[in-house]
């Protein structure tokens, strides 16, 4: 009898790899619940602060902060409510402004 790769209900649920990346990657040391905040500017400021203070990032602060924001948006995918996705997309523009980067079209 072949074994199935599916989990059974009694099996312990596997941790999501994206959660592990967010918590342990060398990108940033993030503040708790940064992506659930309501204000795009607060999200951007938090990411900027984390990127500048992080000892684990491998690239420049702007690149690390933007990468983590994009990673979160992409991993949430279609399950992300439109309002929240719009807030996170707005945080990209705020992040660019905070780092003095030109606005992309």
**Are there runs of 5+ residues with pLDDT below 50, and where?**
none
Can you summarize the main beta sheet?
none
According to DSSP, the number of beta strands is 0
Strand percentage: under 5%
| Overall pLDDT metric | 82
Query: Helicity level, as a percent range?
Result: 40-55%
Helix/strand structural class? mainly alpha
What is the string of helix and strand elements?
HHHH
Number of alpha- plus pi-helical segments: 4
- Rg (CA only): 16 Å
What spatial form do the alpha-carbon principal axes imply? globular
* Cα end-to-end separation: 55 Å
Describe the structure.
This protein is mainly alpha-helical and 105 residues long. The protein has a domain at 33-98. The chain has helices at 17-24, 40-53, 61-76, 82-98. Helix 2 crosses helix 4 and helix 3 runs antiparallel to helix 4 (82-98). The protein starts with 16 loop residues before the first helix and ends in a 7-residue tail after the last helix. The mean pLDDT is 82.
What is the secondary structure topology, with strand pairs?
Blueprint: H1 17-24, H2 40-53, H3 61-76, H4 82-98
Quick structural summary:
The chain has 105 residues and is mainly α. It is built from four helices and no strands.
Descriptive labels:
globular, mainly alpha, 52% helix, 105 residues, 4 helices, single chain
């Amino acid at each position: 009898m072949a074994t199935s790769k599916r989990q059974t209900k009694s099996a312990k649920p596997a941790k999501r790899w994206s959660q592990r990346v967010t918590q342990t990657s060398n990108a940033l040391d993030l503040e708790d619940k940064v992506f659930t905040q309501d204000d795009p500017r607060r999200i951007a400021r938090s990411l900027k602060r984390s990127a500048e203070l992080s000892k684990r990032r491998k690239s420049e602060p702007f690149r690390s902060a933007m990468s983590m924001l994009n990673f979160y948006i992409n991993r949430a995918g279609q399950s992300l409510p439109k309002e929240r996705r719009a807030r996170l997309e707005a945080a990209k523009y705020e992040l660019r402004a905070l780092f003095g980067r030109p606005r992309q079209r």
